[in-house]
Design a protein that fits this description.
Layout: H1 2-10, H2 15-25, H3 29-52, H4 57-68, H5 83-97, H6 101-111, H7 116-138, H8 143-159, H9 164-197
Length: 198
């Protein structure tokens, strides 16, 4: 798929990564390959949701810039044991998915029959790697570069067949946000009404 090829090039994942990951995590290589594609696409969906639904575009760009400061060698498998990188990725993942992160990890582990711990660590590493790749590939300092990344991201998401449970999580995030906005409007109206009649 066009977008898979380009996103894997963007994050600099080579074939040897899967072989080393299979050895390190004691998992089937093919399952790891499929899970990596879904994890990266889910990260892009999280970036899109935070930017479009929650209107956090500036914060997301700052997060991408922060990840861009991390230096990676060509051998990404080296970072399976790098707690600094893993912890940073956990922080980024938490920012993108909030309380839904563990559910997403659980879904992906079940879909590809991988251990939860494997998906957890892969997700943390790949979040930092993906944000780092976006920063280097798109820069995101001009309107043109931001639009280019938006177009690329939408192409990837359009071509991705997400598991229904993950789609449900993103729908739930959107619905919760709408309810919060409605509640905020009602609260403002209530305060205005109380001020008027007191």
């Amino acid at each position: 798929m066009y977008s898979d090829h380009h996103i894997l090039s963007l994050v600099n994942i080579k074939k040897s990564f899967y072989k080393e990951a299979s050895f390190y995590f004691v998992e089937q290589q093919k399952d790891l390959e499929l899970s990596v594609i879904l994890i990266i696409h889910t990260i892009l969906a999280g970036l899109d949701a935070q930017s479009r639904i929650f209107k956090r575009s500036e914060e997301i760009r700052n997060m991408i810039k922060e990840a861009g400061n991390v230096e990676f060698s060509d051998n990404l498998a080296f970072y399976f044991t790098d707690e600094r990188i893993i912890n940073k990725g956990c922080g980024f993942s938490s920012e993108l998915f909030n309380e839904h992160f563990n559910s997403i990890v659980s879904i992906i582990s079940k879909v590809y029959k991988l251990k939860t711990a494997t998906v957890n660590k892969l997700f943390a590493l790949l979040t930092t790697v993906t944000l780092n790749g976006i920063n280097k590939g798109f820069n995101l300092t001009t309107v043109e570069s931001i639009n280019a990344f938006d177009s690329f991201s939408l192409l990837v998401l359009k071509e991705t067949k997400f598991p229904d449970q993950i789609v449900d999580i993103f729908n739930n995030m959107a619905e919760k946000n709408e309810k919060k906005k409605i509640k905020a409007v009602i609260d403002r109206l209530t305060r205005a009404k109380n001020t008027l009649y007191n």
